[in-house]
Write a structure and sequence with these properties.
With about 250 residues, the protein is of the alpha/beta class. It contains ten helices and eight strands. An eight-stranded mixed sheet has the order 3-2-1-4-5-6-7-8, sandwiched between helices. It is about 45% helix and about 15% strand. The structure holds NADP nicotinamide-adenine-dinucleotide phosphate. The site of NADP nicotinamide-adenine-dinucleotide phosphate has 33 residues, from α1, β2, α5 and α8.
């Protein structure tokens, strides 16, 4: 990949105000893309605009709002669409959840991936476009302290796979993939979850994190998304993401 591999293209990143999404927005801008960052926190998006300058366009919106998805895709018609926005689940065991807390990641994460994916297929985006949805390693293992999080993230992986099949069937030339990052304390969501799972195991956070291995950073997440968008041979549909990089999910 050259450093300007995405020069002249537009990328839309949901959940760009912090965490992985911010790292992804920065990496895509560094690869030459004009980046449109979507999130609710106007001040954080403004900070990112100060950092990235004119290559970054902040859009304050709820990514789960289908009207926002339609407006943003109509206006920017991105070559790269990263569906990263996600709610931080309430860290409690299943019987201490209510249906409303249990289903939060369905209302936000799944609803947003469903809505934007649907728009991308119906529009459709230009042939050669890439849509990457953020699932989670929890989709493979469960998330006993995070309500419906793991099931929601598994469904996101399914939606990306269904969309890939529809793109193939209709010869749209749009690549749909999902990424399953490992748990990391380097973001707000991951720090809260790490603390809860450490407490449940009765160990301190440092001990718990040691068991997870090297820490995945937002910068590494950004590099991985650029790699998926521009690198050759990335045709597997779903990838695990750790500090060691991307690896195809087996079945
Ligand atoms: N960190 C981990 O360990 C980990 C592991 C596996 C998967 N993931 C997934 O990776 C993605 C990013 O997580 P993160 O760890 O970077 O979390 P984070 O630091 O909490 O950031 C979440 C981002 O999503 C945005 N967001 C949340 N609800 C939104 C909404 N309704 N509309 C628009 N934006 C919304 C937030 O922006 P505003 O609050 O400004 O709207 C923020 O930019 C999530 O989908 C998460 O499930 C994370």
């Amino acid at each position: 990949m050259t450093s300007q591999a995405l020069s002249g293209t537009t990328a839309v990143v949901t959940g760009a105000s912090r965490g992985f999404g911010r790292g992804i927005a920065v990496a895509l801008a560094q690869a030459g893309a004009r980046v449109v960052g979507v999130a609710r926190a106007r001040d954080r998006l403004a900070e990112l605009r100060d950092q990235l300058g004119g290559s970054f366009t902040p859009v304050t919106a709820d990514a789960a709002d289908p009207v926002a998805a339609g407006h943003i895709l109509d206006e920017y018609r991105p070559r790269t669409l990263v569906l990263n926005a996600g709610a931080s689940p309430l860290s409690r065991p299943v019987h201490r959840q209510t249906w409303q807390t249990f289903s939060r990641n369905w209302d936000v994460d799944v609803q947003h991936v469903f809505g934007w994916t649907r728009e991308a297929l119906l529009m459709p985006l230009e042939p050669g476009s890439t849509v990457i949805a953020m699932s989670s390693g929890a989709a493979l293992r469960g998330s006993p302290l995070s309500g419906g999080y793991a099931g929601a993230k598994a469904t996101i992986r399914f939606i990306a796979a269904y969309a890939a099949a529809e793109s193939e069937r209709e010869k749209l030339g749009i690549t749909f993939m999902s990424v399953l990052p490992q748990l990391t304390p380097a973001t707000g969501l991951g720090a809260t979850a790490s603390a809860a799972y450490a407490a449940r195991q009765g160990v301190d956070i440092a001990t718990y994190l040691q068991g997870l291995g090297p820490e995945l950073t937002p910068e590494q997440a950004g590099a991985a998304i650029v790699d998926l968008t521009t690198g050759p041979g990335r045709d597997q549909g779903a990838y695990l993401l750790t500090a060691a990089g991307l690896s195809p999910v087996q079945s």
